[in-house]
Amino acid sequence: MSKRILAIVLVVLLAAMLAPSLASAAAVTLSLDRSTARPGDTVVASGTADANTFVTLKGVPRLDDGSLEAVVVLDGVKSDAQGNYKAIFKVPNINSNVLIIVAGYGNNVANRTLTVSDGGGSGGSGGGVSSSQAVDSAAGTASLSPGAGGKVSFGSEVSLEIPAGALSGTAGIKVAITKVSDPPASPGGFSLLSPVFEFTVDGNASYSFNKPVTLTFTFDPGDLAEGETPMVHYYDETTGRWAGLNGAVSGSTVAVTVDHFTKFAVLVREATPPAEQTTTVFEQLFSDVPESFWAGEAIYKLSRLGAINGYPDGAFRPDNKITRAEFATVLVKAFQLPAASGKVFDDTAGHWAGDCIGAAHAAGIVSGYSENSFGPDDPITREQMAVMIAGAADLEKAAGEFTFTDGDRVSHWARGAVASVTQAGIMRGYPDGSFAPSNEATRAEAVTVIVNAL
Length: 454
What we know:
This protein has eight helices and 21 strands. It is of the alpha+beta class. Residues 16-26, 119-131 and 273-279 have low confidence and may be disordered.
């Protein structure tokens, strides 16, 4: 194919992607604070997009013959609640006098043309690629200019895109991706779809960026069973647990935006096997919990895990209230949280559940009424239970209006957690349409909620 034909094809493809008349691009707008700039100059791009959405800003150099060069990643920002965004980037040293600026996500984009004076290919002072040129390396390591950013990949397995300004300082910074030879164990019910990777900046594995960066992992869709969805997880060194991130799955890749580094991998929650493979023989462990009891199976499962016990007389007393201390203890045992030196409240010092409350607090699952009071012997309410179980299950707080008849009675501090656990099916309302947020939970309810979360 001749260079001219290739150029025409590229121009047609770019036009199809960028055409502002497309309905899918209508939501994104873009404006620049200048129409002409020199390499190294700072340009402010702003516009509107969908609210709370990550907007990527890229540049496409266009040569005099109409052909296009490789895309340059300029920046990436998140729009605010009103959909407004603003990105600041430095003009890279390019071999042309025209840089097409593209902003958006997926096919929802807008574009503007920036005239670049004294570009490197025009015989100006640029003299070729400078330190402000964005890097694109597949070697797993590269030195990036903070003012330009770039892309670093570990072969085809994972890539890292760092926008301009995300790194601190002005000197070149070494960014590296390595496979973890002895990774942390996957959480129960999950399996790895990719190796575990660790990302470092100048050898520092806990680097925090000035703005979000993008990680894109590849996986084999053939490894997924029906109903399974891959998700990027990061390993929290403080709690010793994996946590999931919301990402975009496309074909054999899944991408997420992050603002800090640690260990990352693609995990999948294993699909529930067919019912005939999961049938368990119910054993009546407690005198007052027959197989026909509505929470019988949940009580059986959790007691077999050693997370909850009955009373010395052989009863479970499923309708008894459960205290905040008891619920925290069952959570710690059921989720196998690591022992940790956590918060000691005035009323948990010397308490029988003090260590478990401390471990749950260290994991970010529980909090007190105040800095000094936890109320360990108070019966736990349903909304308090929702907050704790959402933390244990690593659920993000959900938004949206409640459909419960008494949704206005849910406390403001519990609304996000109640929404997330009910949307996930971990907790449910009552037949009359209410949630009863201030009702004191029973032992049977607590066990059912924990088993649902597991």
